[in-house]
Amino acid sequence: MAGKIFLNGKWVDHDQAVVSVFDHGLLYGDGVFEGIRSYGGKIFRLTEHVERLYDSAKAIRLTIPYDPRQMSDHIKSSVRTNGLKDGYIRAVVTRGAGDLGLDPDKCQTPTVFIIADSITLYPKQFYDEGLSIVTVPTRRNVPEALNPRIKSLNYLNNILAKIEGKLSGCVEALMLTDSGFVCECTGDNIFCLRQNVLLTPPVYLGALKGITRGVVMDLAAARGLTVQETPFTRHELFTADEVFLTGTAAEIVPVTRLDGRVIGSGRPGPQTRALTAAFRDLVAQEGEDAYAV
Ligand code: PXG
Question: Which of 113, 195, 213, 293 is 20 to 30 A distant from 76 in Cα terms?
Fold first, then answer.
C-alpha cells in the first residue's frame, strides 16, 4: 500500500518502516499503544487517546520523547499525509532497542511510530444480527500482576482468549476476572441492560478504561438510562434485555447470544440501536480536524 508511516520523527514508506530485532517492544512487549479512529478526517477523542497513551507510558516508566501536543500533531499529520478520511490510527511507543536482557535502562531511545490506514469495517451482519460469543477459560490479567488499564504491547492474555473464542467459532470472547466476575472481551468493553439500568464492569476489576465505553456511558445517561459501574456475573448477561460491546474498532456491537443462551429477544435491542444512532451522530460532529492546519 502507498502511504507513509511516521517512524522516529521521519516519514517512511511501508516497506521501509522497520524496527530493530533488539527492540524491547518486540522482545518483551515492553511498550504502549493506542488505536484511534478518524471519521471524515476528524479524529475522534484524540485528546483522550493521547492522554491514555501518556498515562500508560507513565505507569511503565517510559518517557515519550514528545510532549502530548507534539504527539497529537504527529497523529494528525499521519492522517493528512495518507489522505485519509475514515481511518484507523495506531500510535505505538516502545522501550526501544536494548540488549538481550530485561533491563529497560539498557534501552537508550524509545521507538515511536504511527500507522494511519484505511479502516477495515466489521461485517454489517454483526450489527444487524448481533454477535454470538462465548466465555473463554483464560481469565483477564489480575490488575495486581499487570494492570489492564495500561494499554501495553503485551496482549498475549487477550490473544489467548481470542484463540479460544475462535476455536468455538466466535469473533469475540468474554473474559472473566480471576474470581469469576464479568470483565471485558478481548478488544472490547461489555455492557448489559435490564429495565433501563445499564451495567458495565468497573475498571478496578481489570478492564481497560475504554474511550468508547466512556462515550456510551455519557450517551446512555443523556437518554435517561441509569448507568452503573458495578461487578456482575454471567447470570446478569444471560438474563439481560440487551448486551452490547464497545471499542474504537467495533464501535457499538450488539451481542445476541452468550454461551448458547439467547439474550433478550435474540435481536439487537432498541436501546442498543438508539445508542448506536447517537454514537454515529456524535462521531460525525465531534473530533479534531486533521486537515485544519
Ligand atoms: N478492552 C480492550 C482489552 C481493548 O484492547 C477496548 C477494551 C476498547 O477501548 P476503546 O478505548 O477503543 O474504546 C480495547 C481497545 C482491534 C483492536 O484490532 C481493538 C482494540 C485495541 C486494539 C486493536 O480489534 N480495542
Answer: 213
